[in-house]
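Table S7 (text form). Paired inputs.
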Amino acid sequence: MKKLKNNSKLLIILTVLESILSVYLLIFMSYQDKLSFKESSNDLTLLIQNMYTSTWWALIITMVIFISILTITSIIYKKQYLHFISILIWVALLILALDFTKKFMYNLSNLAIFVPIILINIKAYYNQKSYIK
């Protein structure tokens, strides 16, 4: 608890929410995987398509889990660069989410999800910077 007192409350709340999101995504992906592989057990093409999409989502989930690990580590060791790396990974996820072949509203909804997350992370980064000094 002593380590948590000297940290930004916004960063701690953000870390808890990111950790909950990563655990939820991991459980949801595991459940979806079981359902989709059960459905595609008779059709080889569907099985390969499900494996590809599962691999893609597994990459995204791994990145979100890595973000959680980095922010937890930045709280414990008070290393700002770890939180900065997690912000950059959120930006990378935003770039992966954008698809300019689809309608504008699709990209707008992605921006509406990722931009607040990135801005809150930046705010928490600067709050934490003031606690470290």
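Next pair, protein 2 of 2.
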Amino acid sequence: MTGKQWYYAQLRWAVMVEGKEGLRAWKEAVHIFLSEDEQTAFQQALEIGSLGEDIHTEGRREVETRLAEVVRLDCLGNNPTQFEVRLGSSKARERLPFEHIFKPEDHMPEPAF
């Protein structure tokens, strides 16, 4: 395959609150971008995800938004532009301590097709 192809990456971040609360919510977004191959696209998705990370303080507690996972990564073929589709956020259904460390680079998502 020569030239760049368009890729669709669905990313998930965890909103983590220091102390007892731990995982507060999940945030998700879709990014569409050009890449040379699947491995390069995965690395680009990780870079995009790290740009979405954030740290701020609420009172005395630290709140961090951390990249947790590249949920999907699909090759879309050729197309002219890059854009993001925000998927919103959802309430956390499981408890994770604030100290939990996500390793999104350890899980390559399966293609949908």
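The mean pLDDT is 91.
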